[in-house]
Structures are given as structure tokens and as C-alpha cells.
What we know:
single chain, 107 residues, mainly beta, 4-stranded antiparallel beta sheet, disordered C terminus
Amino acid sequence: MLQDKQSFLVTGAKNGKDVFIESIRDPDSDRYLYGVCNLVGGLWYFETMSDTRPIGLKRGDENVIYRLKEGMLYQLSATDVIYADTCKIVIREQKNIWREQNGSDSL
């Protein structure tokens, strides 16, 4: 989903029940802005944009969710989980999946 992207927004419904990944070029003005993700030097960073709605980060195998502070950059790894209100965004490394021309998996 994020392949060839340099940045994106994490937004949500005003009621806090839905979270969206949006293009930074065309954000929906009716949504709440949780934060911005940027790719810098091959690494993803997340910056929280407001303290008024809860947003957290669980690092890999740790059993702790850290509440993120507004304006700070947090480096993301392929095992992290971002929590925005009641939703979670799982960070995973993209793997290449080869498909045959007809759409079926190759053997």
C-alpha cells in the first residue's frame, strides 16, 4: 500500500471510530488529523499532530503502549503498531508477491 510513497497522513472520523491512511496531497478536510508519516533516508518516521486525541505506539514485542507527544518524531520499524483512538495500524514490511498474468499465484 505504501510502496513508492514518501509520506502519508493518518486521519480519523470525528467520532474516533475509524482511521484512514490518506495521501498528503489530497487530505479530507472533514477528518481529524492524528499525524504524518514521512520516509527519510529509507526509514519511516511518525509525527503526532495533536494531543487532544489519544495516539500510542507499541514497539515490536514489548508489552507497553507509549502515548505519543505532539510534535515529536518517532522512528517506525516493521514490527510496530500505532494505536489511534480505538483503532490500530500494523506496520509491516512489504514483500514482493509474484503473480501470473492471469492473476493466479505462480507455483
